[in-house]
Write a structure and sequence with these properties.
By secondary structure, this protein is an alpha+beta fold. It is built from 25 helices and eight strands. Among the domains are: about 90 residues; about 120 residues, no CATH class; about 130 residues, Sandwich (Immunoglobulin-like). The chain is globular and about 90 Å long.
Length: about 600
């Protein structure tokens, strides 16, 4: 008997060891995935910092549009006025705060975008616990996946372009609205418990916030109404969504005008094949850029998986899996957003679906599919969590290997903006580069630039503007040329207020600090007459000069009021406290001509 008992105990111990081994592996992998999500957040912060520009970009010029014509950014008429197909009331309030309290520097907007995504991450993490009951390794894995998707650098436009606060707000509001609805539903399922109306208030207010952040927020009303009916919520609860949605939609459409430069939705519906291609590229480009066939295959696979998940809606409702219902409703919101975008943008071609700004919605789509995979992996007798975790790690590693591409895109965007800022500050006309950076000619925003200059906003709030026309030694301490390296690569004759000017390019290196200099300045007779921004990609310079440790040592800028026979000296600005000037090159305008 003792021998038999010992054998049984040994088998039980072995079985316990086998059961605990996958748990330990899953625990370790969950920490690795969570760390990967944190690293993605850090990479995005780095990307925002190195590509920063205080110059307004594209639609961002609307930030000063009202002020130019004597109105206030907080004027109800301006807040309500249609922007393309959107009514950006909440987003415009962010723009007004940046203008009035932060000198239109874009810092407030960029920090707000990051904060919104972080709040979205926290809300998803809370929903995993409150609606899904996730704990331990499963919760950590879900949080790591959500962090990766919400902060993936592929959506770089929305992180480095302040105006894009309007793009990240609807996703946060959509999640908040759906969570509010489902918390009310969960409370209503509890016997003898009256559900709190506070959850319905949150759901309605969040849907209103999404509606007046971007046009796709209006999709939440049919989603919430349909969900309320299918979940068999009490009649007053469903009625709250119907009434609020009806009033909101009526106000939204009051005096609404379809933008003429966008595709006619009716005409787009007559092109189902092109619409489907746009959708597959919209979602498939999360993993591959610029290769439509591969992106289309991946997008098609994602759409098929999403359809399978949505078709399981009733089983999630019957089993009371609120978090699975949340993922389904969020997927419908993402799919609807992609479809609406395709309807209105089809005339721009399939390539437009690859725009990085659409990746905020696309990555939320893939996040929901990944979280659903985790849910399936831990449902039933077989625990496949480790297998799903390994797949997620492979995706993370693949994303890390491709991260340089979106970061390079963001840095190039920032450099072009800063180069255009040098043109604005010095008054040197360079329409070709200005259009490349901003997509418009300087005269199109001349009034806005004048307003910024008068009120010392945006680029005119920087120290660089105050340095112009001042003696070099009044602001900088001179250091020996040995402390820097660099060269002038090109100097092109231009004009500034009818006077001769130069466009200059080259590279510079801070030998002491082993990094690119802060900026490059130009002087004539010891007075600062030119400014150049540093940060252009120059991998060939790094390859040819072993002491250069960065690919981003190129500079470009402008020098005004140049005269034949008066040499122009170029200095690299090293450090900041105190700033030092180090001579890197000299150019004579007579030789240029």
């Amino acid at each position: 008997m003792e021998v038999a008992s010992a054998a049984v105990e040994a088998r039980r111990s072995a079985a316990k060891d086998r059961d605990s081994s996958p748990s330990r592996v899953a625990g370790l992998l969950s920490y690795a995935i969570l760390l990967g999500g944190v690293i993605a957040m850090g990479v995005t912060v780095y990307m925002v910092i190195v590509s920063y520009s205080s110059l307004l970009y594209a639609d961002g010029w609307d930030e000063v549009g009202a002020a130019v014509y004597g109105s206030s950014q907080l004027n109800p008429a301006w807040l309500w006025v249609q922007h393309s197909e959107h009514r950006l009331i909440i987003s415009k309030i962010f723009l007004a705060v940046d203008l009035y309290w932060f000198h239109a520097s874009q810092v407030f907007l960029l920090v707000s975008i990051f904060a919104i995504q972080f709040l979205h991450l926290m809300l998803l993490g809370w929903a995993m616990r409150a609606l899904g009951g996730w704990r331990g390794a499963l919760w950590r894995t879900g949080m790591g996946l959500a962090a990766l998707c919400l902060f993936c650098p592929t959506q770089w436009e929305n992180f480095v372009w302040g105006f894009q606060v309007c793009f990240v707000l609807p996703c946060l509001f959509a999640t908040a609205s759906i969570v509010g609805l489902l918390r009310y539903w969960m409370d209503s399922r509890q016997p003898g418990r009256r559900p709190s109306w506070a959850w319905l208030v949150i759901a309605n207010l969040a849907a209103l916030g999404a509606t007046y952040s971007l046009a796709n927020g209006s999709l939440l009303w049919p989603i919430l109404i349909a969900a309320a009916i299918l979940l068999r919520l009490r009649f007053p609860a469903a009625l709250s969504f119907v009434l609020t949605g009806a009033v909101s939609s009526a106000l939204y459409l009051f005096h609404y005008m379809r933008p003429r430069w966008h595709a006619d939705p009716v005409s787009s519906l007559r092109q189902p094949v092109a619409l489907f291609k746009y959708l597959t590229a919209y979602f498939g480009s999360s993993f591959i850029r610029g290769n439509f066939p591969v992106a289309a295959i991946l997008g098609f696979a994602g759409l098929c998986l999403a359809a399978a998940v949505v078709l399981g809606f009733w089983s999630y409702v019957r089993s009371g899996r609120a978090f699975a219902v949340q993922l389904v409703l969020t997927l419908v919101f993402c799919l609807g957003t992609g479809f609406l975008t395709a309807l209105g943008r089809l005339n721009f071609g399939i390539g437009q679906a690859f725009a990085s700004r659409y990746q905020t919605v696309a990555m939320l789509f893939w996040c929901c599919l990944g979280l659903m995979a985790l849910l399936y992996a831990t449902t039933g007798e077989r625990n496949l969590l480790v297998a799903v975790q390994v797949c997620l790690l492979v995706v993370m590693v693949g994303g890390a290997l491709r991260a340089r591409s979106p970061i390079a895109g963001a840095r190039l965007h920032g450099f072009r903006l800063n180069r255009a800022a040098m043109s604005i500050l010095t008054g040197v006309s360079d329409e070709e580069n200005f259009k490349l950076a901003l997509g418009q000619n300087p005269h199109q925003i001349a009034a806005e630039i004048k307003y910024l200059r008068q009120h010392r906003l945006s680029v005119f709030a920087d120290d660089a503007y105050l340095q112009l026309d001042t003696p070099l030694q009044s602001s900088f301490r001179m250091v020996a040329p040995e402390e820097c390296r660099g060269a002038l690569e090109s100097s092109i004759p231009l004009e500034s207020m009818g006077a001769s000017a130069l466009g200059i390019t080259g590279w510079a290196w801070d030998s002491k600090r082993q990094k690119p200099p802060v900026q490059v300045i130009a002087t004539a007779n010891g007075v600062i007459t030119g400014l150049a921004t540093v940060g252009e990609g120059k991998p060939a310079i790094r390859a040819a000069n072993p002491y250069v440790k960065s690919d981003w040592a190129g500079f470009a800028g402008y020098v005004r009021d140049v005269r034949p026979g008066t040499p122009v000296n170029l200095y690299a600005v090293l450090g900041e406290n105190p700033p030092e000037a180090c001579l890197i090159a000299t150019v004579d305008y007579s030789e240029v001509k």
